[in-house]
């Protein structure tokens, strides 16, 4: 039967392997996430019903800053007709549908003909947006703000920076393995006491 120190050594070795594996999986997931964002207006699909968008301006400061990421729950045009003032939404710009905006609904309107539309405003802006927002341009409702994640995702998507992250990870992993093998060699080359 192995002694207690052998059991502890095995447990420590197993925990280091588990930690290294978890770190590799986390870095791989981050790199895969960073590779996304090309379709659906630059969205990263992080869950079946949530998309991640990078904020590029300070119009929603201080609650949402440039470089943050927003988690958005997509909604249908019909569901968009029941949004209320105070909700933060991500929508397509009126003059360029490829350009996305994340602003707060400040007023809800229904025309005499029953047409729904909203007035939106960035929290940091002095006045409302110049064009009204129709429900058909709304992509979804912001459910969470993740500070600085957007800047990290954009940085990792930059080829030189992505290569730097991968190289740094590989160097750290090599150092970890070298240290682990050096410690194993030290244990096996020590003279035994009779």
Characterise the protein shown here.
Helices cover 39% and strands 24% of the residues. The chain is elongated, with a radius of gyration of 25 Å. It has 2 domains: 4-35 and 154-182; 44-147, Umud Fragment, subunit A. The chain is of the alpha+beta class and 194 residues long. The protein has helices at residues 4-35, 77-80, 149-157, 159-189; strands at residues 44-47, 50-54, 69-74, 88-92, 100-110, 116-121, 138-146. It starts with a helix and ends in a 5-residue tail after the last helix. The longest helix has 32 residues, at 4-35. Strands 1-2-3-7-4-5-6 form a 7-stranded antiparallel sheet. Mean pLDDT is 82; it is low at 37-41. It is built from 4 helices and 7 strands, in the order αβββαββββαα.
Order of helices and strands: HEEEHEEEEHH
Mean pLDDT: 82
How large a portion of the residues is in β-strands, by DSSP E?
Answer: 15-25%
CATH architectural group of the largest domain: Ribbon
Number of strand elements? 7
Which secondary-structure class do the elements indicate? alpha+beta
Number of helices: 4
């Amino acid at each position: 039967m192995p002694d207690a120190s052998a059991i502890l050594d095995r447990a420590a070795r197993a925990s280091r392997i588990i930690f290294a594996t978890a770190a590799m999986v986390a870095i791989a997931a981050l790199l895969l996430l960073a590779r996304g964002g090309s379709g659906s207006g630059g969205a990263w699909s992080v869950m079946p019903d949530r998309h991640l968008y990078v904020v590029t301006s300070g119009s929603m400061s201080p609650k949402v800053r440039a470089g943050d990421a927003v988690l958005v729950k997509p909604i249908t045009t019909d569901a968009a007709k029941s949004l209320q003032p105070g909700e933060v939404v991500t929508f397509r710009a009126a003059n360029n549908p490829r350009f996305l905006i994340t602003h707060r609904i400040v007023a809800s309107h229904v025309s005499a003909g029953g047409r729904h539309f909203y007035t939106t405003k960035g929290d940091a802006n002095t006045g409302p947006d110049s064009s009204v927002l129709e429900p058909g341009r709304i992509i979804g409702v912001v459910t969470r703000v993740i500070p600085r994640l957007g800047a990290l995702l954009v940085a990792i998507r930059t080829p030189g920076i992505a290569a730097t992250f991968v190289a740094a990870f590989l160097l750290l992993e090599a150092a970890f393995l070298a240290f682990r093998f050096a410690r194993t060699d030290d244990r096996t080359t020590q003279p035994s006491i009779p």
